[in-house]
Amino acid sequence: MSSSAADWEYPEHRQFERYEHTEIYAKLTTSRLLTIPPFRFASSVYAAREQKIRDDWVKAMEARIIRDQLSKCYKTEGVNHYQNCRELADMYLKAVKENKVEGFRKKPATEA
Question: What pLDDT was estimated at residue 32?
Fold first, then answer.
């Protein structure tokens, strides 16, 4: 029995309302901000922050699930795991590099 990337599916998880970070911060930086009480945007800002952290953790947990599948593949394939588990190993390396929990305060990387 071979475990590969084709056999693996994302698990179902709870769906949350999506917030656009750029829209919220664009509203906060307009000149009308002085006339609008700040507490009106607070719930949207907090919801966007929670969404960002939640999305980062979902990506980090996806990497953990891929790692678990990769270890199962290594155990079942034995000496042929270099060939038969290559797709999962590539997926795991990509997930480890890209899926990090950054938080909402992380500034975007500037191009040098």
Answer: 54
Question: Does 103 fall in a domain?
Answer: no
How far apart CA 24 and CA 47 sit, in angstroms, is 10
Model's pTM, two decimal places? 0.59
Residues of the chain with confidence (pLDDT) below 50: 1, 112
pLDDT of residue 69: 93
- Which helix H or strand E contains 98, and what residues bound it? helix 86-98
The number of folded domains in the chain is 1
**H helix runs in 36-85, sequence order:** 39-77, 81-84
Quickly tell me which residue has 């719930």 as its tokens: 43
- For residue 108, being part of any structural domain is answered with no
Domain membership of residue 93 as a residue range: 21-98
How many other C-beta atoms are found inside a 10 Å radius of the C-beta of residue 84? 17
